[in-house]
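>> received
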Amino acid sequence: DHCNKAINIVSGDGSRKWLSDKNDRSGKIEVVLQLEESCHLAYIDIGTIWCSSLEVRVGRSDWPQTTEFQSLIPVVSLMTPVDCRLGRGSCVTKMFSKVDFSSNIAAQKWDRLQVICRQPFRKDVQLGISFVRLKSSKPTYQSESKTDDDSKNILTPNKLNRDVSSIQQHFFRKMLPNKSERASSAVQLKQKLLKISGSGEYGSEHEQSLSRTAKLVLKASENSEAQKLVSSTPVTPKRGLFSNHLAKQMTLPIEQELKMFFPSLKINLADIEKLTVA
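>> returned
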């Protein structure tokens, strides 16, 4: 049809359709869709208009033109002769999955799709397709040969047998401020106090000019940072014959640590699915 061309299947928003020509009396139309890349097909949804039967075939762009397409979905009956005569069920939506595909064909990759529509019972109607939806998937089988990247993702016994204390040291120590950050925070506080003292009546920005209250605030800040450092530093027993045994005794069970750790997090229920815990 001049208005409802085949390009509507790929460029339309789903409201435009592809129909046969009004003067066409062959009762058969077909279209070939070129995919962006070769893939394994998982689902195919097709909306038909006045199609008595439907067939889906697949092929590859690097094939010679004389090579025929392979049948992915055999001929499926959509309308009976009685339905066609009464005009009943002229618009049908069919959803095909791997169960409907030919197993040996579905296991391969394809980048071309051929859709064939037939209507031998009515020559006075325009048959066609309202939409085509495809979804690709990875193959269900695994290749025997593994690449180097796949071998890196395999968990070895050395990775699995890490001590709990090493995991805590690796992950949770990153959350604690380092010495430079603690020093910078103390320096910033001291500079602010000196600026305040410099704006007073004496106009001096030396540490000797700080008031007694400012000195107490600075001293309290230094004591607080030192206390945080002592409390956050994990206790590591002296290395010796029973060092590993003592480390396990002094470490809380992971279940208890999780019970204390998770309630301290401020997490919305909507973000639970996005949470990753190491």
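>> Confidence is low (pLDDT under 50) at residues 141-147, 150-157.
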